[in-house]
Amino acid sequence: MAPSKAGKVAAEKTKKEKIHHPQSRKAGQLARKALRKGKLGGQASNRGKKHHFLADFYGFFYDSLPEEGVLTLEELHGLLRDVWLTRHDAELEEEKTLRRKGRPKSVKEVKLEEIKLRESEEYRTGFEVIDLTHRPTVDLFRRWDQKEVAFIQLLRFIRISSANPGSIVISRPGKHHSMVESVEPSLADVEMIDS
Q1: Is 174 helix (H, G, I), strand (E, B) or coil?
Q2: Are 175 and 154 in contact (CB under 8 A)?
Q3: C-alpha pair distances (Å), 185 with each of 44, 124, 155, 181
Q4: Are the C-beta atoms of 61 and 160 separated by less than 8 Å?
Q5: Phi and psi at residue 19, to the nearest 5°
Q6: Which of 26, 43, 159, 165 shows a CA-CA span of 20 to 30 A to 120?
Q7: CA-to-CA distance for 153 and 155, rounded, in angstroms?
């Protein structure tokens, strides 16, 4: 009588689950394979988190675009200072009120304070943002589907700071052909830098 199909599968399964000596080459190979798989999974997770943060960051500026035209440098500073940097204030205040007197800060409160401190220091020294004062950049940015973060690399970026609010530094000129063709600063760019 021939063994059943389920019996064959069970027999093959026991062959594959062979136990190896801990010091054997095969055990070392399996350990290296598991370590590599774990590292790749961790890298994929980190990439996903970074992609999600960047999509939120650029999405904020996309939602802040005016219906027509471009922002002025003062409006861009106000947007960054009054909206982006204060986005965690309500949540931070709630965490402070929930904490009982004499208790240490919660992990969430510490993280929010670190984010706020890091971003305000970055704004003081020079915060890199999409140049919403540059018409070709804004026109191209309006075509973004709000999903593909790689599209953002086509845009022009500037660095603005609270220490010197009247000046800008072009940190990335943009890779789109409309940006590459016009490397010379426009009249509006010169006026912003001079003011």
Answers
A1: coil
A2: yes
A3: 39, 25, 15, 11
A4: no
A5: -90, 130
A6: 43
A7: 5
Domains of the chain: 25-179 (1.20.1440.170)
Per-position DSSP letters for 71-132, written without gaps between them: --HHHHHHIIIIIITTTTHHHHHHHHHHSPTTPPPPHHHHHHHHHHHHHHHHHHH-EEEE-T
Of all helices (H) and strands (E), which one includes residue 158? strand 157-160
The answer to whether 116 and 123 are in contact (CB under 8 A) is no
Q: Token match 């540059």: residue?
A: 134
Sites in the chain below the pLDDT cut of 70? 1-16, 47-51, 180-195
Phi/psi at 162 (5° precision): -75, -25
5-52 pLDDT tens trace: 666 655 555 556 778 788 888 888 888 888 888 887 777 777 666 667
